[in-house]
Amino acid sequence: MGTLYITQDDSYLGKTDERLTVRANKQTLLDVPLIKVDGVVVFGRSTVSPAVVIELLERNIALSFLTHTGRYLGRLEPELTKNIFVRAAQWKAIAPSEPALHLVRGFIRGKLKNYRNALLRGLREFPELSLQPALTRLEQAIAPIDTTHTIDSLRGLEGSGSAAYFGSFDALIRAEGFQFTHRNRRPPTDPVNALLSLGYALLRHDVQSAVNLVGFDPYLGYLHTQRYGRPSLALDLMEEFRPIVVDAVVLSAINRRVLSPENFETEPLSHAVSLTLEGLRSFLRLYEQKKQSKFKHPVLQTQCTYQEAFEIQARLLAKYLMGETEKYPPLVLK
Amino acid sequence: MYLVISYDIPDDKRRSKIHKVLKSYGQWMQLSVFECNLSETQYAKLRSRLSKLIKPEQDSIRFYFLCSCCQGKVERIGGEVLRDETIFFV
């Protein structure tokens, strides 16, 4: 099962028999069986035929729209699952409550511990790096998580931990022509931030699909507050995956020199940086390979892919909210 | 499960119909040979669709199942390359 990425502008998505076809300039560019597709991501403009819309909805395949540069626009969502009990449990735990506090702790602990492990890995590979101050600051943010009793102070810990991590992110970049000073977005103005933003947009497509599949209402989160049109729960669950999926892909794309500074272009007015078509394709390939790569899930003790891990974590979240388990274990990888 | 499907259908119209259905379930490898990686349900659906199309007295379709250890031993020289199903690009 794979994701279909459409980067060809003004292409036409049609259906023949039980296959998806992509046509542009009177040529058929792709013809794949629908049973092999589990997600569709459209970059830029594309026409989707009514038959495809119905077919995707019936087969529970999510369709996301991104701009050319990878900014998230929206998605076509199949019906919420009929499992009302999961949603009822989700609403009952609305903050402030003990379960909400526990989950926020879990999300933040997962994210910060993965940040710490990413830095430790950098230190193992290149012992000469001065990552120790950042690691100390991360430790200081991780230690008080269990004794903090308000969600707002937990958000503060997350902020200081992230600041420490992104403060030394530049040291992990080992290729000429790439620098990272601070995180910027909307729009990202340097190549590294452009890659991070694109990666997070793709990750959101995948995590939101998993959250929906399990039966949650993606708009009610615990760490992220309610805001019109913001899928807070998907963003919550994304936190622990940011460093292990997206940041890892971005770093390997740069450090293994899959992408070079020539793969980026700058928009003159807003200084927004984005990938060229060729660069975008190499990055998407890396991201997809990462998603399909296997590891041993530390809680379930079985082999799984990152793609499956999104759903596993969402199911663990549901189990906790329904009272079937005592704790929500965030995914922390060494 | 991994299947090799071959068919022998004298009528052109029926053959192209069968071909069209099979293309939605697997990959066309040789003139009348397909390779498909299907679940039980998908196989059942494919078989019922095909059985509605053929005339049993003239046509034949064979399904050969490969076990997972034999699947790795398939050798292919020349011709159609196996499709990468982890990512589709346009």
Automatic annotation (TrEMBL), chain A:
Gene Ontology molecular-function annotations: DNA binding; DNA endonuclease activity; hydrolase activity; metal ion binding
Enzyme class (EC, first level): hydrolase
The EC number(s) this enzyme carries: 3.1.-.-
Keyword Magnesium appears in the UniProt entry: yes
Keyword hit for Mitochondrion: no
Record keywords, A-Z: Antiviral defense, DNA-binding, Endonuclease, Hydrolase, Magnesium, Manganese, Metal-binding, Nuclease
UniProt xrefs under CDD domains: Cas1_I-II-III
Coiled coil: none
Residues that hold Mn(2+) according to the record: E158, H224, E239
Pfam families, alphabetized: Cas_Cas1
GO biological process: defense response to virus; maintenance of CRISPR repeat elements
Cofactor(s) the record lists: Mg(2+); Mn(2+)
HAMAP family: Cas1 (MF_01470)
Protein family: Belongs to the CRISPR-associated endonuclease Cas1 family.
Subunit organization: Homodimer, forms a heterotetramer with a Cas2 homodimer.
Function: CRISPR (clustered regularly interspaced short palindromic repeat), is an adaptive immune system that provides protection against mobile genetic elements (viruses, transposable elements and conjugative plasmids). CRISPR clusters contain spacers, sequences complementary to antecedent mobile elements, and target invading nucleic acids. CRISPR clusters are transcribed and processed into CRISPR RNA (crRNA). Acts as a dsDNA endonuclease. Involved in the integration of spacer DNA into the CRISPR cassette.
Protein name, as recorded: CRISPR-associated endonuclease Cas1
